[in-house]
């Protein structure tokens, strides 16, 4: 049973446009969410996070939105750059519980020049 | 953030043999984690490596198959024992960081023939 789902295995966008990566979760105990970026032959790199007490968190070109009622979060990248081409993983955890990260399968983003 | 290195970066092994993967961190950390990423799958937590005590394994992973050592606060090893082709994966170590962000090593790509 996958508790964190990224239903789009891949996404292709043009440079300068917006990239929207989606993530759904099923465990209502999750209250902290993270996005990681992974380049080939490298480990995942922390990108941005959001606590369930917020519905939006912004860091430069990256914004994460959280819709708790829908158990859905999304990562927006504006404007997209070719260097953003990577696999993006959504992860979730419950801060008051195990604090273990549960990952989705990832979405491969390709930004075309 | 912590700088994490892993050895080896990749290996090809024969079934029935064992491989020990090393993880070195440039600073002392309390929590170290070992993950597996099978082809096309998400990152799955194998175990949490605790300094001075036995590792804590997740459901589906056992110490006989994946023995872990944690001799000090900067180093850990994961052994994949009696390997089969199903063990072909990327193995990653990570370290915990407040708040709940984990930093990953570059990974070890294992192929079992």
Structure description:
The complex is a heterodimer of chains A (113) and B (113). Chain A has strands spanning 4-5, 10-14, 19-25, 32-38, 45-51, 56-59, 62-67, 72-77, 86-93, 102-103, 107-112. With 113 residues, chain A is mostly beta strands. In chain A, strands 2, 4, 5, 9, 10 and 11 form a six-stranded mixed β-sheet that branches. In chain A, strands 1-3-8-7-6 form a five-stranded antiparallel β-sheet, with no helix packed on it. In chain A, a hairpin with a 2-residue loop joins strand 6 (56-59) and strand 7. Chain B has strands at 4-7, 10-13, 19-25, 31-37, 43-50, 56-57, 68-72, 75-80, 89-97, 101-104, 108-112. Chain B contains no helices and eleven strands. The mean pLDDT of chain B is 92. Chain B has 113 residues and is mainly beta. The A-B interface holds A 2, 4, 32, 34, 36, 41-46, 49, 89, 91, 93, 95, 99-101, 103-106 and B 1, 4, 9, 40-45, 48, 58, 92, 94, 99-107, 109.
Based on CA atoms alone, the radius of gyration of chain B comes out at: 13 Å
Most extensive interface: pair and counts?
Answer: A-B, 23 and 23 residues
Distance between the termini of chain A: 38 Å
Task: Tell me the major beta sheet of chain A.
Answer: 6 strands, mixed
Supply the helix-strand structural class of chain A.
Answer: mainly beta
Count of helix runs of chain B: 0
Radius of gyration of chain A: 13 Å
| Dominant shape of chain A | globular
Oligomerization status of the protein chains: heterodimer
For the residues shown, what is the average pLDDT of chain B? 92
What number is the mean pLDDT of chain A? Answer: 94
Provide a concise account of the structure shown.
The complex is a heterodimer of chains A (113) and B (113). Chain A is 0% helix and 53% strand. Chain A has 113 residues and is mainly β.
Features:
heterodimer; A: 113 residues; mainly beta; six-stranded mixed beta sheet; five-stranded antiparallel beta sheet; 53% strand; globular; B: 113 residues; seven-stranded mixed beta sheet; four-stranded antiparallel beta sheet; 11 strands
